[in-house]
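We close this part of the discussion by returning to an individual protein. The encoding preserves chain order, so positions in sequence and tokens coincide. The sequence in question and its structure tokens are set out directly beneath this paragraph:

===
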Amino acid sequence: MFPLIAPSILAADFANLQKEVEMLNASDADYIHVDIMDGVFVPNISFGIPVTEAIHRHAKKPLDVHLMITQPEKYLEAFRKAGAETISVHYEACPHLHRTIQEIKSLGAKAGVAINPHTPAELLSEIIEDIDLVCVMSVNPGFGGQKFIENTYSKISRIKDLILAKNSKALIEIDGGVNLQNAPFLLEVGADVLVAGSFVFNSTDPEAVISQMKKLRK
């Protein structure tokens, strides 16, 4: 079984955004990962609804939108209209997480929950049956190109155990510092979806890198 690959458009050349999206369309990527940052929940600002809409206009791959923002429930409908097919919200940003998940699903999108490196996997036990995706942050969110946090491997194993115990269909997505060196080990412990930003877009041949990642076996 091959992993799903979700290149992060945050690392793309924004002066040539259409060209970068068309490159992803022609590649073996399964999704386009779209990181939304508000400068409050994370110490950085990326882009918002109009840029997401522009990406969607040219994209032939589903948009996997990761909301690293406070009060994400206020923007779910807008991002869905902008083309998000999967919407992930942060556990740490949602005091009424179950309600937020229900709202995402009512909009016809897949629902994901992202967790920061310090957030224990076990906190997902009451929501794991209701979601389609767990986005495990393997770096502290806010900036691309960070060093991978080694504790991520054991965290993935614990989430996998939780998914099996609760008979959940949730996929495990890894976001941050993913490369061809650590990807085989991530897949071995239970990862399903690999997000890669700088590793893809900073390479001399992004399409070839995506293909290499796609050929890794779980």
